[in-house]
Amino acid sequence: MEMEDTDVGEFEIVDMEMGSLSLREQRKPVTLKEWNGWFDSHTGRLQMTPDEVKERVFHGGLNANDGVRKEAWLFLLGVYDWNSSKEERHAIMSSRRDEYIRLKGAWWERMIEEGGSTLEEREWWKEQKMRIEKDVHRTDRNVPLFAGEDIPHPDPDSPFAEAGTNVHLEQLKDMLLTYNEYNRDLGYVQGMSDLLAPIYAVMQDDAVAFWGFVG
């Protein structure tokens, strides 16, 4: 190890995986172009180690404006395996879309066909729906995606029925109710909407955002 003498003592200079980059370069946000350059152009497999990628992202973050977050978050949140190929990722997402539709359909049918569930189940779902409703309507409205109430509320019994809603708030509600179906043991916990909102704002695809949230 090299040693460096500083005002506060002598330190070893650790040869990090990203050591070929200067500190200034490491602190620049990762762009979509840089991100794509880490993958084989034919197979789509990552040509670096996951630790090298995480090290680079840790120091520089991800560019907020060029779409790289939409790609990188799926790896960082565990939706895609770091060692997967382009074809494998396509198959994974196709399968997960189907699973999302199945999960969403399950609770939707249960809410419509009340005769197929017990009173206790109906009350539990009603309580969960109300908790989700309240939290989702507290979502940061400074984010353009969630600003305004430009469509009528679909539930006349909702405390927000007169205020109205917007399509993206309704998507958040559906995703969180679907998570209830996916993980009934946990159910909805206050603040989950705040975790899901930025993922959905980046992905703008309910199935993709759902699995990122699960991760």
Would you mind describing this structure in some detail?
With 215 residues, the chain is mainly α. 52% of the residues lie in helices and 5% in strands. A two-stranded antiparallel ribbon has the order 1-2. The chain is elongated and about 70 Å long. 21% of the residues are buried.
Please supply descriptive tags for the structure shown above.
215 residues; mainly alpha; 9 helices; GTPase activation; Rab-GAP-TBC_dom
Q: Give the uncertain stretches in residue-range form.
A: none
* Helix and strand composition category: mainly alpha
Helix content: 40-55%
Task: Give the CA-based shape.
Answer: elongated
How big a fraction of the residues is strand? under 5%
Q: Strand arrangement, largest sheet?
A: 1-2
Distance between the termini: 38 Å
Order of helices and strands: EEHHHHHHHHH
Main beta-sheet annotation = 2 strands, antiparallel
InterPro entries: Rab-GAP-TBC_dom, Rab-GAP_TBC_sf
Protein name: GTPase activating protein
Keywords: GTPase activation
Pfam families: RabGAP-TBC
